[in-house]
Prior knowledge:
Blueprint: H1 5-14, E1 19-29, E2 34-40, E3 46-47, E4 49-52, H2 59-71, E5 74-85, E6 89-90, E7 96-110, E8 120-127, H3 137-151
Amino acid sequence: xxxxxxxxxxxxxxxxxxxxxxxxxxxxxxxxxxxxxxxxxxxxxxxxxxxxxxxxxxxxxxxxxxxxxxxxxxxxxxxxxxxxxxxxxxxxxxxxxxxxxxxxxxxxxxxxxxxxxxxxxxxxxxxxxxxxxxxxxxxxxxxxxxxxxxxxxxxxxxxxx
Length: 161
């Protein structure tokens, strides 16, 4: 996985110490209610498209950028559906990070889904009733919460209370 340049600069100062980083995730659905997923290069599992925001980047804008970079798909953010904090992640090189994740409900606008960078080995559209068995647990949770939001947006986004 490529490390964003600003994270590499931070790491030059803090080493492997814990970094708290803002992340975004997209539940991208097309007009046929198919879900966009990518098979992660780091663990081989299918997952929702996600990424780290650049300093000062607006979350919805950053997510649209991540979706386009990773999958070639142009998406439009519809709404913020889920906010959560991840568990601490320790990477193979010893770096530790934890993420504040903002999950957005998105709709497909344009583009052919394809692998756009080295973060994924496959990209594809899946009917909601026919998701692969090997979808990450965090993606399953974020998807479920987002679909609840989609059914009744007046409930607002999910967050721990």
